[in-house]
Structures are given as C-alpha cells and as structure tokens.
Amino acid sequence: MKLHKYGTPSHRLERVLSKVAESLGIHGEFFYTPTALVISLTEPSGDEMTVVRRVTAGAFDVDKLIRFDQLLGQVEGGEIVLGKAINQLAEIDNASHLYSQPVYAVACSVACMCVAVFFGGSMAEVCIAGVIGAVVAGLELLHERQQWEHGLLEPLAGVVAAIGSILVARYLFPIDDRLTTLAGLIVLIPGLRLTVALTELAVGHLSAGTARLAGAMVCLATLFVGVALVWRMARVLRPVIELPSDSANHWRWIALAVAPIAFAIVFRAGYKQWPIIAMVSILGVVVSWAIEPKLGVEVASFFGALAIGCSSNLYARVRNVPAMVPQTPGMLILVPGSLGYRSFSALLEQHTVQGVQYGFTMILIAVSLVGGLLVSNAIVSPRRIL
Q1: What pLDDT score does 386 carry?
Q2: What does the record say about its membrane topology (predicted)?
Q3: Do 63 and 123 belong to one domain?
Q4: 218-273 per-position pLDDT tens digit
Q5: Are 376 and 305 in contact (CB under 8 A)?
Q6: How far is CA 296 from CA 204, 300, 308, 361, in A?
Q7: Does residue 158 carry a pLDDT above 60?
Q8: Residues 25 and 102 in one domain
Q9: C-alpha–C-alpha distance, residues 120 and 302, integer Å
Q10: Average pLDDT, stretch 152-179?
C-alpha cells in the first residue's frame, strides 16, 4: 500500500503486487483505484483472505520509489525475510523528504519561470510567474502541514495567483496577467494526472482510469473557479494591454536546460538522477519541437513521448531501476494541462468555439502522448515493472 502514495499507476502497481505474491508462493488477485485497494490472497492450503483498504494517492516521489523498488527486488529474490521487509517499508515511508521545504519552493518557482518562457512571456512576466509559483508552493506546503480540507488548495491557489497578477499589472508595471497566472499555477495543473488516466484506460484499467480522469478534471475545474471568481469581481482592475513578447528564442533553450532539474527537485529525485532526467526531458522536447512545424502538435507529441519512453526504458534496462524515474519528469513538460486551463478561460469569456477547440486539442495531445508511451514499451521493454 506504499507504492500508490508516490505516483504508481494502477496497471504497474497491480503487476508489482502480483509478482511479489508469486515470489512468496501465494496466489493473489489485486484491484486498485486511486481511492481503494482490494487484495485477495489464496494460500497453497486453499485458505483465502480478502482485504479492502481506503487509500489516497500522493505526490510522485522518485527517491522513495527507487528505494521501494530495490526492496521489492530483494523480496522477490529471497534476499530478505518478509517481516524485515515490512519494517523497512515503514522506515522508507516515514522518512523525511529528500529536499527541504525552502528548496522545494524555489524549485517550483524556477519551474514556473521556465514555463512562462515557453509561453513566450517577457522578462517581467517570467519574474512575476516565479514569485507566484513560490507563493503557490508555500500554500501547498501549508495545506499539507495544517491538513486543510481536501480540495481547498486548488481554488485558494487560483484566487491568490489571479489577485497577485492583476495587482501587479494594475499598479506596478504592465504584464499579461493571464499568462503569469497560468504559469504560476503550472505545478498544480493536473496535466500529468490526465495523461496517466488515459494510459490506464488504454491498457484496460477502466475503473482506475475513469476515477483518475474525473479527479483530474475536477481538480482543473476547481483551480480555475478560483481564478474566474477573481476575474469577475476585479474586472475593473484588469488592464487591457497588448504587449509584444520580448522573450528571445535563446531563452527557450536556457529554460529547457533548467526546467528538467527544477521538475526533478519537485518530484524529489536525487542529484544522481538529475543527468538522466535532464537528457530524457530535453530529448523529448527537442524531438517535439522539431516535428511540430511540419506535422502538427499531435504527431510531435506522439514522437516526443516515444523518444522519452524508449530512452527511459533503455535506461531502466541498463541500470535496473524503474523507468518511471526519468519518464515522469520528462513527460511533465509535454503534458497538455495548460490547454485545459485555456479551454475553461475561453468558455468563461463566451468564446465557445475556441474553448471547445482547446479542450479537444488537450485530449488529442494526451492520447498522442499515451500512444507514444505504449509504442515505446513495445519497442524497448523495461526490465522492471515500475
């Protein structure tokens, strides 16, 4: 029940549990959704036991995922007794995060700044997006520490990000407040969760995929509700300014070099994993950028995900570590979560056709990413299930 807390999809988790049960000489049937885990075990004597547990999926944690995978490998190989393995699982689960809260907040801020560069923001907009990203990260950490009501973080973060952007645009210097709001919220936008949900649906895990997809859409909707409320109530404060972008092309490459490291820290990956995460992420984005002008964003997304999946699986085979380690941070730059946000924004402004188009493009890109990952598993199969 520990792997689900750190971002393991249902199809991978069920296969891991089945393999561990087989290594222990027990027949097991497993059913996992983001909120429930059903385990049915049958001993060689014929005795059967079924357990149902209420679970809550947590944030992706690369460091703990690697340690869990290594421990499960020892269990499968008979190198450690089950009782000791259970104690070590608890120790890993209770261990503190790899990075301190200030480091995590700075990484979120840098990630938001890089995303603002990708969106074509000016230098002022990039800096404001970084400040908003740090504030949103602080709210996330405060939400975790104070154990606020589940679902409160997203609308609260949307309100804070929108208010901050509007006040800066009104009273300090002219910026595109919508761009800075979107970039500042990028860490909370569930684009990766949407892609994982479609992957689960594609491989036949309908219950888990449907539940995760519904959760992702509700998360995106509540996030945008906070933004929309501020836009409506502070309409008179929002300046109407058309600003040319002064984000030169070379800044995109600098942001591309920095963003993978920032996302690696956000996902709590150790510094030893930074080089492979950076290489896989940059490879996927470069492939996508090279193909998009000629064949369109959908084909570019497919081949970008294919490059990330193949390189991640190859690394997993060579180093005998989970392919999810470089794959998940690499995919985060490609996922279309921002399009869902823009779809809600266009619908709010009664631009129905544009809103529907953004939403359809989001689904199409997400499906293309899923297709690329599935094909990569057929081309280069990973040695480990994770």
Answers
A1: 58
A2: Multi-pass membrane protein
A3: no
A4: 888 898 888 888 888 877 666 655 555 555 577 888 888 999 999 899 888 888 88
A5: yes
A6: 28, 6, 18, 11
A7: yes
A8: no
A9: 23
A10: 88
Residue 302 lies in a domain: no
pLDDT digits (tens, 9 = 90+) for 63-108: 888 887 777 777 777 777 777 877 887 787 777 778 888 999 999 9
Query: Are 44 and 166 found together in one domain?
Result: no
What is d(CA 164, CA 158) in angstroms, rounded to the nearest whole number? 10
SS (H, E, C) the chain: CCHHHHCCCHHHHHHHHHHHHHHCCCEEEEEEECCEEEEEEECCCCCEEEEEEECCCCCCCHHHHHHHHHHHHHHHCCCCCHHHHHHHHHHHHHCCCCCCHHHHHHHHHHHHHHHHHHCCCCHHHHHHHHHHHHHHHHHHHHHHHHCCCCCCHHHHHHHHHHHHHHHHHHHCCCCCHHHHHHHHCCCCCCHHHHHHHHHHHHCCCHHHHHHHHHHHHHHHHHHHHHHHHHHHHCHHHCCCCCCCCCCCHHHHHHHHHHHHHHHHHHCCCCHHHHHHHHHHHHHHHHHHHHHHHHHCHHHHHHHHHHHHHHHHHHHHHHHCCCCHHHHHHHHHCCCCHHHHHHHHHHHHCCCHHHHHHHHHHHHHHHHHHHHHHHHHHHHCCCCCCC
Region 125-145: mean pLDDT is 91
Print the domain residue range for 186: 96-243
- Cα–Cα distance between 289 and 355 in angstroms, integer? 24
Residue 86, domain member (yes or no):
yes
